[in-house]
Amino acid sequence: MAAASPGPCGDHGPRWALPLRPPLCLACAVETLGDGSLVRKKHVLSRLQDALAWQALPLVQLLAPDERVCMHLIGTLFGKGSAEAWCILVRLVVELKSEQYLYCILDESQKELCKANTMRSSLPTFSLLGKLADAIPGFAEILVVKHNNLVDHLLMGLTYPNESIKAAVCYLYGKLYSSPAGTERLSGHFEERLCGVFLNTLGCAQTKELQVNCLGLLKELLKSDHFVSILMNNAKTEEETENPDFLEGENPLPLVLKKLLLTRDEMLQAASSHCMAAVLVHSPSRYAPAFIHADVPEFLFECLLCKSEILIWSVYCCLLLLTEERLFFSKCHTVYGIESLVRSLQGVLLLNNVELHKQGLLLFTEILKRQPVEIKLFTNRGVCIEAIDVLMETVNCPVLEVAVEAVKAVAAFLRKDHLSSPPVPYEELQKLLEAVLKRCADLSPSQSSKRHAVTNRNPGRLPQRQGQFLLNTLESFRNACRLAVEFQGDFMAQENAFTAPNSESKDTLSNFSEFLLRICDSLCIPMVMSYLERAVSPSVTEVFISALTTLFTVMPSMRKKFSKKLGMRPSLLSLSALLHSNPVLNHTCSSFLCSLCLNLYSAIEKTRTSSQEEQEMSELLQKGLPQLNYTIAESLLLLSESPEPFFLDQSLCSHQHCFLLLLYFAYTFGDRFVPDAELFLAVRNFLLSAQDHGDCPPPHILRAAFYLLAVCQDKGKALDRYLSTIRRILDNLPDLSSVYVHCPLLVKFFLRYPELMGRFGHQVLQLWFSWEDCKQTEVEEADFGSSDQLNSANPLLPILKSNSSILLILLDLVCSSSVEVAWKVLMTLRTFLERNEDVLVCDLLRSRFLQILQQLLVESSSATLQANRNLPVLLSLLFLVQLRSKGIRELDSTDFKLIHQVCNLCGKCRPRDTDLLQPSLNFLYWSLHQTTPCSQQRAVAVLLSNVSLLELLQKVLESTWLWSPPSRPASFLSSEDALLCSGWLLVASLLLYQHRYNTEVHQTLSVDLTEVLNAVISRNKKPTLLLVSIMQFLRAVLRQNFSSSLLVIVGQNTAPSATEPQLSTLQDTALHPFAMQQVFSLVVSLQNLLVHKDLLLSQAVVACLETLVEYLYVKNQDVALHVASQPWHRFLLFTLLSGGQKSFLQPEVLRLMTLFVRYESSNIISQKEISQIIQEAAEANIAELPEATACALHFFLSQVREQ
């Protein structure tokens, strides 16, 4: 009982005592295990287990020196046969670290297995061997090398109908085959004896323990390609055929694994799919057909509906390997399982497992890529929409690795056969593409470092992933473009077949195509160009250029507009023009450039498109572009190179012509990727070389060359020494229009050199105005506030300013060109004269105007003149030239001839020809006023001698009373009102100057005085300017006391009314042709007009009032003084002073004061007000006063001094 005693054992001494509480004597413990009762044995086993757990080192130190004791203890423990004893035994052998003890156990196990009456009693031994294999790394090698006879017992145990024994044996087999030595030594054993038994055991296993251990063994076996080959090629033997439990089929392993997939146990399903993957990974093409014929994929897809991440991962891996076999798709397994896969992805996205996300998307991508075209993958539109939703969600995933896989899937998804089930979900595809492009755009270096600092587990690879993401994005976009092109031939895909009648659907191919063009311009191109500025990527460039090439055919109606958009993109043409040695990229860029150049040609040469020229250009570009593998510097040298004498190098010419066309289209849209000075020199040398060798390039090549010369002229040297050669080239052309480009720089180039301008200036300007879409009307001119804006609207204006002699060529065009061209020329000249007052061209233009007018009047009748829309512009231009003459000047013969021609022109017009008469009457009026008295007298004589002109003026004056104006503001002036103003002003001037120079009159004018007075008195909503003009006429007749040989007054008071008082009659007689009542009404009306405080109207009213009082003073002083001293005038004066400017120093106020002082109207203006005005004048700086104010102040002070 020493083992149970708390103190040291007295029989064995302290040497065998273990430091436990209570102390344990090891010797006593061994004795107790041999002879003690069952209770004591269990107690000792428990204490030994504690000793190995807590005091293993002292225990080993006690046992190791005495081999006999160790062997005895091991034998004792082995003989117990209990699980607890064997655990101690395994632990003890591990701690002792001696192979002899292991050999001892193996010997005992061999004996135990041999003497066992039944296989059932061998179970503990198999279990012990399994535990030893777990605990000791080299156990498997020792067993198969030193005790290989035990393997026969294992095979027997596997055939015994007890699943516990089979489980223990399979477990031990698994450990043996996990070691390299075991695999090598037992290879023949497996092939000859174990394989069939094992497959039968696995197929018939019922308990989970056996199933798990079998799968464990299978997993180890599947690591070897040899064992996989044996398992997959195992055929039934005669014995196995007789066994009804053996699975049917030539390859039982797929069927066995399929059976495990049918269980509800997710762990077994995961292990089964894992084993399938382990088989397929050796050779998918060799082993996949067996699984596919066994319909395993169908059950794998069903397993995707579970929630186990391990199972889903295993199934993804297995299906991914199956996709490498075409039979997987031809058997329609993907069609059956695509819905399960999409639903699985939806569920997986809810999990926080990035690797699972990536693996699922990888499987989805491979299925989308490898699915045969003839087998439609998405037979259900709802599943297709769900797939788009999954792709949308994964594209927006914050983890970059997941988003990269998602974009790959999008690229594979955008195939016609995947989306051909009507109706095509165009709106969803737009959203998906937009999400992909925006996600890619968000990965700019400045943003991605902030946004993905946490979501990317490997920041060092971020730039590489960004580049890959961009490449995948571009592939998606290219596939979408190809999809749109393919759908053009499918009527069902062009519009939504389920759109309600009379309703418009946005889900159409047209809208989708427009979206592709729009998002390419707004997102795709800027994103790619920004990336290529930072990195060189041939793959990105190739896919990008390929997508752009496809876009040319996406929407044929928008091809030209899209080409212009591409042309205006800086560096796009130059990016493509730098062709590469990479053959794929070179071919892609060549195709793109060819399409772009031809489309640009059609767009910019729309008025001159020639099918033959386009065909020649197409052949040249298709042949020459792929061979244009040069740098910019090399290309410029090539352009300047001359062919060998007597030998025309067609290859050299082809390269030169291709490069010129590229430069032409690039420079047309502002992409100057070659230095101007160098290009100018190279193009010049090209032209000189062609001329020297007698080579005549096609017109489209010469057009490009001359355009490039013109564009680069400012940065290049002058061509003075080479002008003769340039001129010979141009002279040899049948028509200059064949090399003309509608560009102001080309016009400037021809007009820059006198030799070229003299020879070709007329033709170039003719072509300019023939091509120009002139929209510069009076209304449009008001929209251009600055000169820069105006120059951009009409780029010819700065060229005209730099060389005024060009104006003569323009005037020649007016005579020699069509009506349309002449009108454009005149509009340009008018704008030029209006905006450039500092250019002195009046004398230069007058003689040409005279010639044009003479020609028009001789060649045209009255009807044709009125229909000629160029004539009004010409007359307006003539008037502008007249306005440009500063100061008073003597009229010369040209001026008098112009006056004569304009008078004759007016005589051929009708009053309603306002566009002709308005500028003509203005010209005549200005000619009378802007000259010396001597010339003025002659001009009046010319005008009054023209009877037809006076007859026209008579009709114009009469139309004043016949025309009823619409309800418009007083400030608005229609063309009819403007003509009436010009007519009244011209008649007033003729009255004045005829009286002054006593000119002979050949035709009189008649005016109804009552109508004139009514126009001022009642106003009748007449425009302000017309009232001012009529008052100007009224002043003229008042100054002449209504007695003029040119004017006949009608409607005057010839007989007094019998009912009127005698006094009134006498006064009317004195005021003849005025009536007293008319005078008072006129005065009141003038006072009312003055209250409006309109500056122009106020000046005219004050002047008319002055003249009226002067007239009345001559006719009847009492009436004049009565009018001048009306109390209302004082109120009127204070009304004028009540505005913002309360000073007396205002022209109209001073003139009214002068009038009141002159006629001694002390009740109107007192001495106090006069003193106040004098004081203001003394304080004011006379030099700073406006001219009109200073003049009025002078007259006022003079009148005060006289009084």
Automatic annotation (TrEMBL):
InterPro entries the record matches: ARM-type_fold, Immune_Signaling-Apoptosis_Reg
GO biological process, one term: meiosis I
Protein name: Meiotic double-stranded break formation protein 1
Organism: Serinus canaria
Chain's gene name: MEI1
